[in-house]
Structure formats: structure tokens, C-alpha cells
Structure to design on (329 residues):
């Protein structure tokens, strides 16, 4: 009589409630700090908490190197032609700066969206790789987009719990010990199933691929006109190589990337009340208001004035500022 080995199934059955228990504990800790809606920068410099009781409209963002863990609700991020959708227990990671739009949703029973964000740098990843002696290389030579989602394991959630509990300690102690927990987090990510994707960030910046430097150059010069030839020269790349690799990583070409940075920043300036549409267009480098209006509508779906009114109708100005949605990074 043939009997199926139950070991793997039993192990998964055992791990599932532990993971749910860790998620529940972590959510409770996050809600204790973020008691109401908004974006909370904690005493740990690289850790912030976001909480929203109502779904948000698509908001312009520039994704920066970070690890975002969804505890409740869901988040949809749209950049280039790619859409990333993350639910409770998933993480969303950006390895490079990428312009896009982000939208959060609560659950069907009106449970608020709650998420944690860990900011990291290329240097931190490289340091862990070197000191831990990790042997990591891309699984193939094809570059992949610089943002992706994954599912957190129980041991990763336990590290987040340890990090959140440090908020109860004196600030100096929390800062020191949190840096150690962060290094362990990076080690777990690098040594896990997504390690080859995290390694790409180091690969971009340190293996003469030029993509990291090209992105940094555009961010520093997005308000001025430039040619792809000029960017390629500044990044030590051929024009064809720049086009191919830039699109593989950011899902868009260099000039489209610049255009999105310009329009995102113009929208931020208008949402903050700092400028009207014409002034914002000039500030980010547009010489023609009609071209600005045309490209703005193509990206955001509405002309500037209507779009700003629509977003402001969904949020009070105070919530926009508190939530950090007006931050251009």
C-alpha cells in the first residue's frame, strides 16, 4: 500500500499560523505608533510607518531604494508599462529611483492600510555581501526591472518585530541596535530566494554598467534639456547600450524617464500650493505651457488644474503633507 510522505505538507501547515501570528503582532505594534492616518518617521532613521483609513487616488511618487512591507490593505504601483500589486504579507522593493504612481487600498471591511518602509543604500548591501562572504551573481545576464514584489517569510517578520520593539527604548540605544537589525535584514534578503535581484543594485552601480550613474545624472539635471548622446558620454556608455540597459531596468527610455520626473515634480509643486501650473512648468524646464499641459494630461489623465482639484478633493491639504505624499525623492 502506497503512502504519501506528509513531511513537506506538515511543515507548511506548521509555518502558516506562525507567519500569521507574526503579521498580527507586527500590525499591532505598527498601529500603536501610527494611531491615526499619516506617515510617521520613527526614532529609527530608516524606518517609517504609513497608515490610511481610506483608499487613496493614484499619487505621483519617485520610488527610491527601499523595502516596503504591507501589513494590511494593498498597494498598487504603476511605473512605465509595469504594474505591481502587493497585498498583506508582501513586500515591495525598489532598487533604484523610479518615477511612477502609487495607490493604497483598505480591505473590504474598512480595515486601514498599514505599511512599514525600510530605506537602504547600495553601500549597505555591498558591505553585507563583502563582510558575510556571500557569493551572489545574477541568474542570467539579462537585466530586470529595478522594482519587484515578494512574499515575506516568518523569520523576516520576526526581525521587523524586533525592530519595532526598539522604539520603546531610549533613542540612542534604539539607533545603535536598529543598525544591527537592519544588517541582519539585508543578510536574510540577500541569502534568500530574491538575493540575485537585490544584488542587481550593487551590480548597476559598481560593475561599470553605467545605469546607476545615468539615473543619478538625470535626477540632478532633469530640469534642463539634454541629448541621449550627452547622457551616454556622461555615463561612459554607448548610445545603443544606454538605451537597451536603461529600458530594461526602468521600463522606459532616458528621455521618458526625465519627462516623468519633470511632470511628477510639477504636480508636487502644485499640490503643495507653492506654484500655479505655468510657474511649475517653467520651474521644471518646460518652455511651452501648451506642451506641458498636453504631456501632463497624457500622464495623469486630466489637465493640470482639473487634476489638482481632483486630488485635493480626495485629501485635505493637512493629510497630504502629513502623509509625505508631497515629498519628491
Amino acid at each position: 500500500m502506497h503512502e504519501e510522505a506528509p513531511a513537506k505538507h506538515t511543515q507548511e501547515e506548521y509555518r502558516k499560523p506562525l507567519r500569521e501570528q507574526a503579521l498580527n503582532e507586527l500590525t499591532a505594534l505598527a498601529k500603536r505608533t501610527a494611531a491615526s492616518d499619516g506617515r510617521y518617521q520613527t526614532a529609527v532613521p530608516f524606518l517609517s510607518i504609513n497608515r490610511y483609513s481610506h483608499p487613496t487616488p493614484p499619487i505621483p511618487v519617485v520610488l527610491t531604494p527601499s523595502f516596503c512591507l504591507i501589513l494590511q490593505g494593498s498597494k498598487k504601483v504603476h511605473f512605465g508599462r509595469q504594474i505591481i500589486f502587493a497585498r498583506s504579507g508582501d513586500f515591495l522593493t525598489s532598487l533604484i529611483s523610479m518615477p511612477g504612481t502609487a495607490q493604497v487600498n483598505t480591505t473590504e471591511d474598512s480595515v486601514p492600510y498599514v505599511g512599514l518602509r525600510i530605506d537602504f543604500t547600495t553601500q549597505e548591501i555591498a558591505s553585507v555581501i563583502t563582510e558575510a562572504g556571500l557569493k551572489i551573481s545574477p541568474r542570467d545576464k539579462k537585466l530586470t526591472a529595478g522594482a519587484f514584489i515578494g512574499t515575506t517569510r516568518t523569520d523576516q517578520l520576526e526581525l521587523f518585530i524586533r525592530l519595532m520593539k526598539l522604539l520603546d527604548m531610549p533613542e540612542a540605544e534604539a539607533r545603535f541596535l536598529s543598525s544591527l537589525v537592519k544588517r541582519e535584514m539585508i543578510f536574510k534578503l540577500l541569502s534568500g530566494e530574491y538575493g540575485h535581484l537585490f544584488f542587481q543594485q550593487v551590480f548597476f552601480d559598481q560593475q561599470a554598467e553605467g545605469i546607476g550613474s545615468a539615473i543619478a545624472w538625470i535626477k540632478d539635471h532633469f530640469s534642463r534639456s539634454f541629448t541621449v548622446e550627452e547622457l551616454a558620454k556622461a555615463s561612459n556608455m554607448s548610445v545603443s547600450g544606454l538605451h537597451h540597459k536603461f529600458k530594461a531596468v526602468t521600463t522606459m527610455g532616458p528621455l521618458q524617464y526625465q519627462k516623468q520626473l519633470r511632470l511628477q515634480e510639477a504636480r508636487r509643486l502644485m499640490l503643495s500650493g507653492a506654484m500655479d501650473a505655468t510657474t511649475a512648468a517653467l520651474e521644471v524646464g518646460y518652455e511651452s505651457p501648451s506642451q506641458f499641459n498636453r504631456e501632463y494630461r497624457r500622464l495623469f489623465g486630466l489637465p493640470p488644474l482639473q487634476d489638482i482639484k481632483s486630488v485635493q478633493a480626495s485629501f485635505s491639504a493637512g493629510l497630504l503633507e502629513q502623509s509625505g505624499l508631497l515629498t519628491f525623492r
Summary: Residues 7-33 form the longest helix (27 residues).
